[in-house]
Specification:
The complex is a heterodimer of chains A (168) and B (237). Chain A has 168 residues and is α+β, with helices and mostly antiparallel strands. Helix content of chain A is 19%, strand content 40%. The model of chain A has no long low-confidence stretch (mean pLDDT 88). Chain B is of the alpha+beta class and 237 residues long. Chain B has 2 domains: 112 residues, no CATH class; 119 residues, no CATH class. Chain B has 1 helix and 18 strands. Chain B has a 6-stranded antiparallel sheet, with no helix packed on it. Chain B has a 5-stranded antiparallel sheet with strand order 9-14-16-17-18, with no helix packed on it. Chain B has a two-stranded antiparallel ribbon with strand order 2-3. In chain B, β17 and β18 form a beta hairpin. The chains are: A alpha+beta (168), B alpha+beta (237). At the A-B interface, β1, β4, β7, β8 and β9 of A face α1, β1, β2, β3 and β5 of B. β11 of chain A pairs antiparallel with β1 of chain B.
Chain lengths: 168, 237
């Protein structure tokens, strides 16, 4: 009985020693991006993001660094630089690039994890179209245009090239 | 007598409430069905149309030179693209019938519901140097192709990446600085590589390996429907 107690005590001591001497995973990682969009940049830093935008450009493009990791440390915005720091364990930075200005990030800052876990979600909601495609390895399709509504296609086999189908 | 009248009124009110509630439920069910069947109808019509067009093209391929055919469309929504550059004919529509990120083949018709990621070698900044490019419908993100696992070369993060915001058609080459515990690890030796590449992917990743004051790797990941790139930095102990 006493032998067993000693064995358990030694194992516990060993686990404690290994844990104590393991290297702590507490690096701080910082990513900083110096960005020029169109020369009229402005930006902001939030609790867990920093963002730069150019409202003078159509669609209000923005680029943002957003925290999506385990432990946030700091964020910063300095004229044309956005910066974010977090602990290395479980770190994840998002570099977002879309439209609507920094307010788009601000609006989604509370549900970043939800956004990250859904492979079809974005800062802006998008529709995903369906495509029906005919691909011809044995023919050379000639023509390049888009049509919609009611229309008619004329398909003509080339008079000179047996492989060519000219579509108008 | 009065109590009986009251009871009758109460029953009538309850009956009316039940009728109104069930009418609302039925009406919304019908509405949902019509919307769904509208998508399904367009989808099925599209399939038939493309299948018939394919038959016409294949028939024409065996005809003598100069033969012609006419083919009529009446699209309620979407558009048709004759893409001679890629040798294909494409009908694009909004139809919530198959799941996003799905590819199926029915006869000769390839049916794809976007979005996807393509990962390929390219040169988006036209500097005659190869870049590793990840692209979906919203973002094009590229990293300079530098060195290899067998051959580590000088590398710096300050001119490493290019990001195109496709929503606004804006391209930037950000000067990227990396710090670990406030030590600048933006330069050193190392390499970049694709972790996976190809077309119509669910996600793609590029890895940067850096021997610097502190060695580390950074993995950039782009998923099909995201308008952002995920970055994970792993210091090597």
């Amino acid at each position: 009985m006493f032998k067993h107690v000693i064995t358990i005590f030694l194992i516990a001591l060993l686990i404690f020693a290994v844990d104590s001497f393991a290297l702590p995973d507490k690096h701080n990682i910082t990513i900083s991006l110096k960005i020029s969009i169109n020369g009229s940049e402005s930006g902001e830093q939030g609790m867990r993001y920093s963002c730069i935008q150019d409202a003078s450009v159509k669609g209000e493009p923005f680029f943002s660094l957003i925290f999506a990791g385990t432990k946030f440390v700091s964020s910063g915005f300095f004229s044309d630089v956005i910066e974010l720091t977090q602990e290395s364990k479980g770190n994840k930075f998002l570099i977002a690039a879309t439209g609507g200005g920094c307010k788009t990030v601000r609006a989604r800052a509370g549900d970043i994890n939800e956004l990250v876990s859904d492979p079809y979600a974005g800062f802006i909601e998008h529709n995903f179209p369906t495509e029906m495609i005919l691909k011809y390895a044995g023919a050379d399709i000639v023509g390049n245009f888009f049509r919609s509504g009611a229309f008619s296609l004329n398909l003509k086999k080339s008079a000179t090239n047996d492989m060519q189908i000219i579509v108008t | 007598m009065k109590v009986v009248k009251m009871k009758g009124m109460l029953s009538l009110i309850i009956a009316l409430a039940v009728i109104i509630a069930s009418t609302v439920i039925v009406a919304s069910s019908i509405n949902f069905y019509i919307e769904t069947s509208g998508d399904a109808q367009n989808f099925n019509q599209g399939k038939i149309l493309m299948s018939n067009l394919d038959a016409v093209v294949r028939e024409l391929m065996f005809e003598s030179k100069g033969a012609t055919r006419d083919f009529s469309f009446n699209l309620k929504q979407g558009f048709f693209h004759v893409d001679g550059n890629n040798n294909l004919l494409k009908l694009t529509m909004e139809a919530d019938v198959i799941e996003p990120g799905t590819i199926i083949k029915e006869g000769n018709v390839i049916i794809k519901r976007r979005p996807f990621v393509d990962a390929y070698d390219g040169d988006p900044d036209n500097d005659d140097e190869n870049d590793l490019v990840m692209e979906n419908d919203f973002i094009m993100f590229s990293v300079k192709e530098i060195g290899s696992n067998e051959s580590h070369v000088d590398i710096g993060t300050k001119d490493l990446i290019i990001i195109t915001n496709k929503f606004t058609n804006t391209t930037i080459k950000p000067e990227q600085t990396m710090l670990i515990d406030m030590t600048d690890v933006s330069s050193g030796t190392g390499y970049t590589e694709f972790l996976n590449r190809g077309s119509d992917l669910e996600e793609a990743s590029i890895r940067l390996f850096m021997n610097s004051t502190i060695d580390y790797e950074a993995v950039f990941t782009l998923k099909a429907g995201h308008d952002f790139v995920e970055v994970e930095v792993r210091p090597m102990e």
